[in-house]
Design brief:
Number of helices: 0
Oligomer: single chain
Order of helices and strands: EEEEEEEEEEEEEEEEEEE
Structural class: mainly beta
Number of strands: 19
Helix content: under 10%
Distance between the termini: 18 Å
Strand content: 35-45%
Radius of gyration: 18 Å
Shape: globular
Length: about 200
């Protein structure tokens, strides 16, 4: 378990480890702001941040085993600008993101962690929604999204949308901020991740 703050930790069997909060500088890149919840992929927590006044997105990561901040490369053709909404997500163990400009929606998935050239993309067509937040993959073709507080599934191959109805929860009662849970154990001392 990690928290914000600074605390010297010498006993390896302690339950809680405190590390410094997000950095102002990561590998020489000045980070102006972090605007999404952390996403755990490959033993590191990831956040989207801005690098400069043109709102260029930067992926900042904190390696849990090395206790170091690093920068993960973004796709080279990622949309940039003040009115671009980018969201990070873990899709089946791959760092992924949705880039939404209102005119274009592009999903990106990093197939080989840390390798800029391994980002693959596909365009998302369909309803003109204010905000889409990717949550998880139901299958290779189906992505579950939070669409302005409503859960929907987008089928990539068929370019089709459908609503998800959750038994016991009335329609439109979902709230933005929906998160998925992926069971895992990360050992801070070894850096190895075990999935159950």
């Amino acid at each position: 378990m990690y928290g914000l703050g600074v605390l010297h930790w010498s006993a390896p069997d302690r339950c809680t480890r405190f590390v410094s909060s997000s950095p102002d500088e990561v590998n020489g890149v000045w980070v102006r702001g972090i605007w999404v919840n952390g996403v755990l992929v490959n033993g590191a927590l990831h956040w989207l941040a801005t690098e400069d006044s043109d709102y260029s997105p930067v992926i900042v990561a904190f390696d849990l085993s090395k206790e170091k901040f690093l920068e993960v490369p973004t796709p080279s053709t990622l949309y940039k600008g003040k009115h671009v909404m980018n969201n990070l997500v873990d899709l089946r163990g791959c760092l992924s993101m949705l880039s939404d400009t209102k005119e274009n929606r592009t999903f990106w998935m990093m197939k080989d962690y840390g390798v800029e050239e391994s980002w693959s993309k596909f365009e998302v067509k369909g309803p003109d929604l204010v905000e889409l937040i990717p949550l998880c993959l139901m299958s290779e073709d189906d992505i579950v999204l939070d669409a302005c507080g409503q859960l929907i599934v987008y089928n990539v191959r068929g370019d089709q949308w459908r609503d998800i109805m959750v038994d016991g929860i009335p329609s439109m009662s979902y709230r933005s901020g929906t998160r998925t849970f992926r069971e895992s154990l990360v050992s801070p001392t070894s850096g190895k991740t075990a999935f159950f």
